[in-house]
Design brief:
Helix content: 40-55%
Order of helices and strands: HHHEHEHEHEHEHEE
Low-confidence stretches: none
CATH class: Alpha Beta
Strand order of the largest sheet: 3-2-1-4-5-7-6
CATH architecture: 3-Layer(aba) Sandwich
Strand content: 15-25%
Number of domains: 1
Largest sheet: 7 strands, mixed
Shape: globular
Number of strands: 7
Number of helices: 8
Radius of gyration: 16 Å
Distance between the termini: 35 Å
Mean pLDDT: 93
């Protein structure tokens, strides 16, 4: 299910040592492929990074915008402490059903709440759940600026906000791709991250770029 399938020898060395999927995640990925879940998930490197961030921040309440087949949500949910909660927003019912099945199989269903439908419809309903300790955005790129607005609104000092695919596989700076709504959305997202007075931000150079901000 991960699009990060081509790695150089050094990356493979690191993946073998630090980031390899276990049996549960490998099964999730295999079943996702067989059931036609799009090949758009993060890779195991980013999954381990999410796990470490949840543990480092002591996060107990996490928001994920864009669940797909539940791969990234698995990394997050496994890292949550007892009583922790992940709220996931997913557009497609098929993907939500698949993710729920996988999480139940792995014993994670009790710590994840999944809401199905357009994220911009679901987000206004989450005010009572705020603040979140960590927000991971990995959905339609054209709406990243709006998702960031909600993430900041639902944050506290110290909240970590992440956005995947900043590079967009080269499209972000490709002169021939600048008419794309998704490219313009991502450029607006990057500019907002870099300039917002409440954020300290950078981009972690994982494949395709992982933006990261801490709320002041």
């Amino acid at each position: 299910m991960s699009k990060l399938t081509e790695v150089d020898p050094y990356q493979q060395f690191l993946r073998d040592l630090f980031h390899s999927d276990d049996d549960g995640l490998s099964r999730l990925m295999a079943e996702a492929e067989s059931e036609g879940i799009p090949n758009m998930s993060i890779g195991p490197e980013q999954g381990k990074f999410l796990q470490l961030l949840v543990q480092l921040t002591g996060a107990t309440k996490v928001l994920e915008i864009g669940v797909l087949g539940g791969y990234s949500g698995t990394w997050i949910a496994r890292a949550l402490p007892e009583g922790g909660k992940l709220i996931g927003l997913e557009l497609e019912q098929k993907h939500a059903d698949f993710a729920r099945k996988q999480w139940k199989r792995m014993g994670l269903a009790d710590r994840i709440e999944l809401r199905v439908g357009p994220a911009l419809d679901s987000l206004p309903q989450l005010a009572d759940e705020a603040p979140f300790d960590l927000v991971f955005i990995d959905a339609d790129k054209g709406n990243y600026p709006a998702y960031l607005d909600f993430a900041i609104q639902y944050s506290r000092p110290g909240t970590v906000i992440l956005g995947d695919n900043v590079e967009m596989w080269g499209s972000l700076v490709d002169p021939g791709k600048q008419d794309s709504d998704w490219v313009q959305g991502m450029r607006s997202f990057a500019r907002a991250l870099s300039s917002h007075k409440r954020l300290t931000s950078t981009v972690v150079p994982y494949p395709d770029g992982l933006a990261m901000a801490v709320v002041k």
